[in-house]
Structures are given as C-alpha cells and as structure tokens.
Design goal:
The protein is an alpha+beta fold. About 50% of the residues lie in helices and about 15% in strands. The chain contains 16 helices and eleven strands. Strands 2-1-4-3 form a four-stranded antiparallel sheet, with helices on one face. It has a four-stranded mixed sheet with strand order 7-6-5-11, with helices on one face. The radius of gyration is 47 Å and the shape is rod-shaped.
Length: about 400
C-alpha cells in the first residue's frame, strides 16, 4: 500500500507540475502580448519608423526593443511597458527577440520560444511586428508549490469517506443492529470491499447465526481456517453454527470432520460427519444391522424386504443376536422371535431412522446417511441398503475384548 501511495503521489505531482508549466507560460504570454500591444506601436510611431522605413533605423530599433525587453521580471515595471508584465509569480524572467519588423526578417523562431505577433494601423497602413518570447521558470518554487498542492489535495481526498458498496452497507447495518456504533462498524469493515464470495457468505452467516462480539466475528472472517470451507464443507459449517451458535471451533470441527458414519451401540448414537445423532434403541440396531451388511459386502449391502405376508427368520436371528449382545429392547427381541423379520417392521424402523437424521441434519445433508432402494426384478420387491460407501462406515462395539471398529 505504501508503494502504491508513493506512485500515486509522484504521478499526481508530475501531472500537476506539467499543467502548471503550461498555464504559467500561457498566462505570461497573454499578459506580455497585451502589454506590448498597448505600448510598442505608439513608441514605434514616435520613433518615425512608420514614415522612414530606413533599414538602419529599423535595425537600431530592433536592437533597442531587444535590449529593453531582455530581462523582464515579474512585478518590475518598465517605462516602455504599461501595465507591467506580471505580479510576482512562478516566472523568474522573460526575454524578447525580434523576428520581423517593417518587412525585414532578422531571425527565425527557435525551439522553446513562444511566438507573439503585434498588429496595428498607421496612416491607413497595416503594420506588423513578429516577436519570440523565452521565459525561465522559478523551478524550486514551482515544484515545491505543486507538491504542497498535491499533498493538500490527497489529504482532503483521504478525509472524504469512500463510497460504500451495497454489500458493505448491508454488513454495516447488521453490525449496527447488534449495538455497534456506525463509525466503529465502518472501521471494522474497511477491508470488506476486498472480500471474496466466501467471505461475504461467512459475514452473512456469522452476523445472522451467532451473537459473538463484532470484533471477534470480523477476525474469524479473515481466518485462514475458514478460507478452506469449500462447497462440501460450508453446509456442514452452517449446521455447526446452528447447533453451536457462538462456538466457531465446534462448528469448524463439524465442517472439518471426515464424512464418516460412526455407530456407537454404547449410547445408540449415530455420528454423521462429526454430528452426534441420538437414535431410539430399536431403530438404532436396525440401522446398525444394515451398516453391518454394507461393511461386510454381503450382497453389496442390499437386503430385499420380505414378502408382505411373510417373514425372514434367518435375518431375524441376526438382529436378535445383535440386540442381545448390546442389551437391546426386550420387546423388540421378543417380537422378532415370535414373528420373524417382517417388511412392515423394517419399513417402520427405516422411517424412524430417517426422521431422526433428517431432523438433526436437514434433508440435503442427511441424504448420504440414509437408505437407497432398488426394485428386485426377480421378486418385484424392494431392496434397501445404506447409501454411504463401506469405507466410510465405522461400527463400534461395547463388548470387552471386541474391536473398536469393524
């Protein structure tokens, strides 16, 4: 920022200096021409040059004009110039050369000289005098004055509040509604116009989903950890904010968690992407049973619903062993022993699992942790399995000596 500011200062100084040089030269030339136009024609008439046309006299007058106008200085009156050339200014001095007088050419215009032509009538004759003017500027004063002007201008500009973008105005309004003064809100959002789309989204989330102090919130928006919230992790971060309103660390832990499903029978809890979802005991063990089939690659995890009027005793024994091993509900175990595994029981427990997980995660995030189905072309009944891939499923056990995951 300092380098850019210095470049801006130098560029403005150069531009203003060039403009001042042009303006000073133009103003000096205009004033000098006006002064000479008022004085010289009459002095030439008094000298008789319009009557005699003598080359010697013409050259003599030419030398006199150049001598009289050799060192014109601002604020110094000359008897032959009324009014004086200039008030004290950025011009140090000027000198005049005669190019043409009475039809006689004495010199040619040189580079850097300014041309002046004086016209008048004398005894019905048109008279003309061609001159060139060379001026020397007071460069120290010129450069210092323009530098001071640039500094003053930039200082005034810096005092003018920058126009606010619509997004920044909205952010300031959110911060002021939280009790922050408008001046403090402008200061905290001074870098907001450089936000990327993710940072604008984060500012919206943090102001709407948290009650943290604005200073802390703005610090989190610039935190590199939040910069890695991609399209997959950002929705989980939003869920984390909804569950842990002012605990950004907890919300980030959910966003940064692996997209795994961990089923823990110790407390009948499903951990989905780091979010703990407690389930009722019986639906949990049905969910666990589907997960076991998925992990064991048994028929690729698919299980076909029993016939509507029948039951599956083999699958029922698997569920009974699972529930008894983990102290499942006795009524559910008895029902399986008496009636076997029925399609209605499977449908009810899958529905209860879905309700709990959707309620905890929302429809979109819950989708990967629920069931997918496909019709069995042989029996025309539906197959169900967990959507999540086997390598993303971890099955914990509370049995002493048993492995933690499966």
């Amino acid at each position: 920022m300092r380098a850019k500011g210095l470049i801006l200062l130098l560029a403005a100084w150069l531009a203003l200096t060039l403009l001042s040089v042009w303006l000073v030269n133009s103003a000096t030339l205009t004033i000098l021409q006006s002064a000479l136009q008022q004085s010289l024609p009459q002095r030439l008439a008094d000298a008789g040059i319009n009557q005699l046309g003598n080359p010697v006299l013409v050259e003599y007058l030419k030398n006199r004009i150049e001598a009289d106008l050799a060192e014109l200085q601002p604020g110094v009156s000359r008897p032959q110039l009324k009014p004086p050339l200039l008030e004290p200014s950025l011009v140090k001095h000027c000198s005049v050369r005669v190019l043409r007088l009475q039809g006689i050419t004495f010199a040619l215009r040189q580079s850097g000289e300014h041309f002046i032509q004086l016209d008048w009538h004398y005894n019905d004759h048109h008279e003309q005098l061609d001159l060139t003017v060379s001026c020397t500027l007071d460069w120290p004063r010129l450069l210092i004055s323009q530098l001071l002007l640039v500094l003053a201008g930039l200082g005034l500009i810096s005092c003018i509040p920058a126009p606010l973008s619509a997004q920044r105005k909205t952010l300031i309004e959110r911060l002021t509604r939280s009790g922050l003064s408008r001046r403090r809100a402008r200061h905290l959002t001074r870098q907001a116009d450089h936000f990327n789309p993710l940072q604008w989204r984060l500012s919206e989330l943090l102001t709407s989903c948290t009650d943290m102090p604005p200073e802390e919130m703005m610090g989190w928006i610039d935190n590199p950890r939040l910069a890695y919230l991609d399209s997959h992790r950002l929705p989980w971060f939003v869920l984390g904010l909804q569950r842990h309103r002012d605990n950004i660390e907890a919300a980030l832990a959910i966003a940064e968690a692996e997209p795994d499903l961990i089923l823990d029978p110790a407390d009948c809890t499903a951990h989905c992407h780091g979010v703990a979802v407690p389930l009722p005991s019986t639906p949990f063990f049905y969910y666990y049973w589907y997960a076991m089939r998925r992990v064991d690659h048994e028929n690729a995890g698919w299980f076909t619903n029993p016939h509507a009027n029948g039951s599956d005793t083999s699958a029922a024994e698997e569920l009974i062993a699972l529930m008894e091993r983990h102290d499942g509900h006795h009524k559910a175990v008895k029902d399986l022993r008496d009636k076997g595994l029925r399609a209605k029981t499977l449908d009810q427990n899958r529905s209860k699992v879905k309700d709990e997980i959707v309620n905890a995660l929302g429809e979109e995030l819950a989708r990967d942790y629920l069931f997918e189905m496909a019709r069995d072309p042989r029996t025309a009944r539906y197959n169900y399995r967990l959507t999540l891939s086997p390598e993303r499923i971890q099955l914990r056990s509370e049995i002493v000596g048993a492995p933690v995951t499966r």
